[in-house]
Amino acid sequence: MEPRVFINPWLFLVNIIYMKARSRKIIRVSILGIVVNLALAGFKIFVGLLSNSIAIILDAVNNFSDSLSSIVTIVGTRFASKAPDKHHPMGHGRSEYLSTVIIAMIIIYIGLTAMIESVKKIIDPPSVNYTTQTVIVVSVAIVAKILLGLYVRHRGKKLQSGSLIGSGLDALYDAIISVATLTAIIIYYATGWEIEAYLAAAISLFILYSGIKLVRGAFSIIIGERPSSDLTRRIKNSIAQFDGVNGAFDLVMHDYGNGSTVASVNIEIDHEMRASDIDDLTRSIQKAIYRKYRIILSSIGIYAIDLSDPEVEKLWQKVSGICDHYDKIIELHGFHVDLHDHEISFDIVVDFTTPNRRNYYQKFCREVEAKIPNYQISVTLDSDISD
To answer: Quick check: is 133 in a domain?
Structure first.
């Protein structure tokens, strides 16, 4: 069994402090969203009562409902920031993705409602009565919602909060609907054409698509999606920069939400490195990766390689040469030779897109066994889990 070096408690403490600070920032942004929506609702009710416009008053009610996505974000963030317990030792961060799903469902509901109302107006066009008050309210709502949506979405991306991103999109979609209304008013006054229902129908389709895309993205993370290729390559390259490390392999990342990612990796080192040096090396790697990427390396496995023996070097070259003829083999690592018992073991990574990966792997094993008949061959088929 390969040795494991477990992370020291210092990194977990630093990560808890970071997550709590992140939660406070998300809640502050969400509270801003609630304040803006309530202010807009109050303004619209005031104008609606003065102008005796039921349409503006109903739009104010919509702003009250828009506050719901910010409330969902606050509740989800508060629950996600709960301390780990016996039943949830990695914390409750993944509940944040559930709040993202709820917000996405709100967006889908907005899209469906807009589509239904648009179809009704297309089938039975109502008589329009655009007023100066309507134009003022719509214009103010557009500016406020665009500024709020862009700010909330920007903060959501910076804080890696799917629920904040969803709230920002919710505000921007409201602004888009208001832009469609204002465009329809301008076209009506300029040409006499009533196109508001058609514009709203087109926009509602876009909103539905975006809501469904947000749901799929949240569920993909909950299920466990492949991490970013750019990120995993940068992490491996950062690890490989350490003196004594010949390469980093088998990087596995687990997203626990709330800005908390736990990972494990195997590194290849010289077989003569002392245990105390390995301990110093792995601790340094753990701290460096956390400081740079906010990722906790919970364990680091060790591959000890020795190519100083001519026979081992010859076998390595032979196996590497065979690998070169298999274009779907992405990586060969963990090469180990026991000259006394005539055993060779190593891992290969086969691309997930390979048809019949198991057959492809078995074909490769048979060729290695045929070309190196004097050794017992043990090949592990690794999953293509990260680039």
So the answer is: yes
Same structural domain, 47 and 106: yes
CA triple 366-371-377, angle to 5 deg: 55
Give the 3-state secondary structure of 19-67: HHHHHHHHHHHHHHHHHHHHHHHHHHHHHHHHHCCHHHHHHHHHHHHHH
Dihedral over alpha carbons 117, 119, 123, 128 (to 10 degrees): 50
**Torsion angle (degrees, nearest 10) of CA 363, 365, 369, 370:** 20
Give the other-Cβ count within 10 Å of 316's Cβ: 19
- Number of structural domains (the chain) is 2
Asked if 16 and 144 sit in the same domain, the reply is yes
**Of the candidates 176, 194, 223, which is a domain's last residue?**
223
- Residue-range definition of the domain harbouring residue 349: 229-382
Distance CA 196, CA 121 (A): 9
Amino acid 249 reads F
Q: What is the pTM of this model?
A: 0.70
- State pLDDT tens for residues 242-274: 999 999 999 999 988 766 889 999 999 998 999
